[in-house]
Amino acid sequence: MDFNLKKLTSDAGVFFTRAVQFTEEKLGSAEKTELDAHLENLIARADCTKNWTEKIFRQTEVLLQPNPIDHTGARIEEFFYEKLDKKIPSRTTNGELLGQYMLDAAKDFGPGTPYGSTLITVGEYQSRLGGAEREFLQTSAINFLTPLRNFLEGDWRTISKERRLLENRRLDLDICKARVKKAKQAEAKAALWSEEVDKAEQELRVAQTEFDRQAEVTRLLLEGISSTHVNHLRCLHEFVEAQATYYAQCHQYMQELQKELSSANSDTYPNSFASNANPSTSATCPSPVSSATLPGVSPPCLASSSTPGIAQEPSGPLKIPDVQQPSTGHRKAKVLYDYDAHDTSELSLLADELITVYTVPGMDPDWLVGERGNQKGKVPVTYLELLS
């Protein structure tokens, strides 16, 4: 008990002495031993590495698990498993959960109905997307997040500990320098014996040795930051590779899903796709329009093989310029997407331009007559935003 009390008193004294020295240095009333330029540069580089690694780590966590307090409590659960040093169980992704809901709904709606069969198809692909997402999350956590976390919680803690120790050794060294200076001043005034000066100089030599040793240890640790950058560079490449694989899988699944839905729609609703038989009147949908993939919905940009109410030649395309304008029904419209006319009856469009549109009796509701100056032709409604 006496030993512990003495040690506690001694530690308190050392702490107080260092605090006094630190305060005097800040106030400019005490001299401070400066570190060499190389060591200062290493410290600055290490601080920069730590700060940016921490930001990248936190934001990657947000990217992989955007909402830490969702209904699954995903990241909170992971935190407790990490603290308990236990393996994190495999978790159902949102895509897999959505797919399961769709499959369950199809059972109630009837798998033989158009809606039920489509729910089954979409649900299966949602499950595949969810599985790809889970694999991406696991790969990214192992190959990218874990190395960054190991650096922050392992290497950086060691570096920080040695830097604090170096700072303490520096304070001790400056305290000894101050004692030697005071002892020599007192000796000059015959106030102290030479033994006091010798003792202070001996303490200074010991403090200098400990400071130099600690500076070398800290320098070696800080120089290891270069190898840390190399390791994190490799991890970054693996993270990008995992992202590329994941997005490629998603793209492939969505293309396959669209083909299956288009095929199922053409079998279930053949009349909606009858216009595909005439290649001269078919148009290609722009990427923003996706209604062609929905059950029972005709693609808005597929041109009909005939348009009642508008004069046309028996074997040639519709001649819109021969159609007379109605006296009413003119409206301004903004073009949403570029559109290339497929024949002389249609009008090519440029995104964001303004045109005048109107309809004529008996015209297909998916099309309007558009005018731009002296040019006139059919335009698809889905490419327009009617303004007035």
From TrEMBL:
SUPFAM superfamilies: BAR/IMD domain-like, SH3-domain. It holds the Pfam family BAR. CDD domains: BAR_Endophilin_B2. GO terms for biological process: membrane organization. Residues 270-327 are annotated as: Disordered. Residues 328-388 form the SH3 domain. Residues 270-293 have a biased composition (Polar residues). Keywords: Coiled coil, SH3 domain. This is Endophilin-B2b isoform X10. The gene is sh3glb2b.
